[in-house]
Amino acid sequence: MSRGKRLEIDLKPRDRQQVEKLLGGGLQAVRTTLRALALRQMDQGQSTPAVGVNLGLSAKAVWQIGRRYIDGGLERALFDAYRPGKAPGLDQQEQQRIIAVVCSPPPEGRARWTVRLLTEEVIKRKLVPRVGRETIRILLESHDLKPWREKNVVRGRVG
Fold first, then answer.
1. In this predicted model, which residue has the larger pLDDT, 93 or 155?
2. Rg of the chain over CA atoms, in angstroms?
3. Residue 120: how many CB atoms within 10 A of its CB?
């Protein structure tokens, strides 16, 4: 198995100062500190496997840190890229419609709303194209609504 080409890192003087400043003090994420230490050791001529052993990282992780420095600079090597995550399942209007249903009286023959009943009703009324029970549960939890406990739901007086 070939080891491939050795990764040689030569930090720019300005980058070297920033790494030293970052390691010099202050609170930093452990991940950022380890990456800075890896860059500094590779800059001093150590191989990626040796740096990995010194820092408790895999040789591949150290190699990737060095590669990111070469390709994208110091910021790219030290910090993770922005990851937006998954888009919310419901928009603001859909959430409001579901909450309105929760605050209305339950269907005939039922004493109170349940998450399962709400999910079925919301889909039946075509308020949202599709929604899961967990999405409904999280929505209710975020608004501190517990329709299965009748005293916690806001309802107008009937009569």
1. 93
2. 28
3. 13
